[in-house]
Design a protein that fits this description.
Blueprint lengths: L31 H12 L3 H8 L3 H8 L10 H13 L6 H7 L10 H13 L2 H19 L4
Helix pairs in contact: 1-5, 2-3, 2-4, 4-5
Length: 149
């Protein structure tokens, strides 16, 4: 079975600890709980306000802030929604800041044409090659989430 080497996947995403534009960086060492606590105070919002505006359940948001629930599997759409809800309140918060605080690289925007082309190609493959492609994509995703030493 041929599989491309996932180590050759080129990622231009920032990882926690990498330097990027100053306005895109959360204060050093600030995790998601600290970031949320800070921006809630700056925005004069309650956790319930943010949960409602970001489309997250209050108990889930509260558990992230109290650090009783991990944030490694929070959907990218949820992280973007949090940034958007906070920004709408007048406090500047970029998705990159939220992703960095959650210890995650920021996924690139979805290009609908590229996504449709990939799906078309996938559907043309025999079933065994579809499985290979899914395994490769999963390996590439894991590699993109690996933080540098």
């Amino acid at each position: 079975m041929w599989m491309p080497d996932p180590s050759c996947v080129n990622s231009h995403q920032h990882h926690p600890g990498e330097q990027g534009p100053a306005e895109d960086q959360a204060p050093t060492g600030e995790d998601l709980a600290a970031l949320l606590t800070r921006v809630l105070e700056e925005a004069g919002m309650t956790q319930k306000d943010l949960a409602e505006k970001a489309g997250v359940s209050y108990p889930t948001l509260n558990s992230w802030i109290k650090r009783t629930r991990g944030t490694s599997r929070v959907a990218p759409e949820t992280l973007r929604s949090i940034a958007s809800a906070v920004s709408a309140s007048g406090v500047k918060l970029t998705p990159r800041e939220v992703f960095a605080a959650a210890g995650r690289p920021v996924p690139g925007p979805t290009d609908a044409e590229r996504e449709a082309r990939l799906l078309k190609l996938y559907r043309q493959l025999p079933e065994d090659k579809q499985r290979d492609l899914v395994r490769y994509a999963e390996a590439a995703l894991k590699l993109s989430h690996a933080s540098p030493g």
